C-alpha cells in the first residue's frame, strides 16, 4: 500500500506538471471543488474551482511558453484523510512581454482525501515582504 505522504507528493507533482504544460483540466483535477486559494496577486482569496480556473487561465495567458515549476524542500505531514504540506517552488519562464522570470515562492497546501482521492482543499502562495518598505522581496534564493 502506498503511504499518504507518497500519494500527496504525487498529487503535487501532477499539479506542477499541469502548470508547466498549462493543462487547465489536469490542473483543476488536483483541486477540491470548494478550494480556498490565497495567491500573490489580488484579490485576497479565490473561493471555489470556478474562480481558481479563471485565475489560472489568466495566469497561463501571460507566458510565452512553458512555465517552470520545481518543488524544493517539500515537507508533508499526513494523518488519516488530511495532509498539510510546505514547500519552496522555483517558478519561471518567459512572459509575453519578453521578460525572463525566475522566482522562489513559498507555498503551503492543505490536502484532503475523499472518494475522488487526494485533492488540494486550501493553498497559500506567498513572497516575503520587506517590512521597511512594504514591498515583496523577489530575489531571495534558498
TrEMBL record:
<protein>
    <recommendedName>
        <fullName>SnoaL-like domain-containing protein</fullName>
    </recommendedName>
</protein>
<feature type="domain" description="SnoaL-like">
    <location>
        <begin position="8"/>
        <end position="129"/>
    </location>
</feature>
<dbReference type="InterPro" id="IPR032710">
    <property type="entry name" value="NTF2-like_dom_sf"/>
</dbReference>
<dbReference type="Pfam" id="PF13474">
    <property type="entry name" value="SnoaL_3"/>
</dbReference>
<dbReference type="InterPro" id="IPR037401">
    <property type="entry name" value="SnoaL-like"/>
</dbReference>
